[in-house]
């Protein structure tokens, strides 16, 4: 997956915005203001995705490309190295999981706002 495919996949999800809160190189995707994915746009060598803590450990054991989240809470975030071994389908599943985790943790008020979006 290239950076533009990654960007289009993330931004197409309902309630998602893209921002640069950590500087011009770090592209961040948020659902209703909460981060679910981020990457360095200059190198696009890896992406950080939120993950259920138990699943995060299993993915790290199963895939060498999955490491504890770089500069993130290592219990809840994984860094996925994009060296070509993780296919687009699997990466999209992990993006979907991250988006769902963050969405499900939103307060009721934000979920109501979400329901009123397009």
Task: For this entry, give a set of tags.
118 residues; alpha+beta; 6-stranded antiparallel beta sheet; globular
Helix content: 25-40%
Instruction: List low-pLDDT spans.
Output: none
Major sheet: arrangement of strands: 1-2-3-4-6-5
Distance between the termini: 28 Å
Approximately how much beta-strand content do the residues carry? 25-35%
Number of DSSP strand runs? 6
The best one-word shape is: globular
Order of helices and strands: HEEEEHEEHH
Question: Main β-sheet: number of strands, strand sense, barrel status?
Answer: 6 strands, antiparallel
* DSSP helical segment count: 4
Task: Report the oligomer.
Answer: single chain
What would the average pLDDT be, to the nearest integer? Answer: 94
Backbone CA Rg: 14 Å
Q: Which structural class do the helices and strands define?
A: alpha+beta
Fold and architecture overview:
The structure is a single chain. The protein is α+β, with helices and mostly antiparallel strands. Helix content is 37%, strand content 25%. It is built from four helices and six strands, in the order H-E-E-E-E-H-E-E-H-H. The longest helix is centred in the last third of the chain and has 17 residues, at 88-104. It is globular and about 40 Å long. It starts with a helix and ends with a helix.
């Amino acid at each position: 997956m290239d950076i533009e495919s990654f960007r289009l996949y993330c931004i197409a999800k309902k309630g998602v915005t893209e921002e640069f809160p950590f500087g011009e190189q770090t592209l961040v995707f948020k659902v209703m203001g909460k981060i679910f994915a981020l990457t360095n746009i200059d190198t696009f060598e890896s992406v950080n995705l939120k993950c259920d803590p138990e699943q995060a450990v299993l993915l790290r054991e199963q895939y060498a490309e999955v490491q504890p989240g770089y500069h993130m809470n290592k219990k809840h975030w994984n860094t996925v190295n994009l060296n070509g071994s993780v296919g687009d389908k699997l990466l999209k599943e992990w993006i979907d999981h991250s988006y769902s985790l963050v969405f499900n943790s939103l307060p009721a008020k934000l979920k109501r706002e979400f329901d009123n979006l397009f």
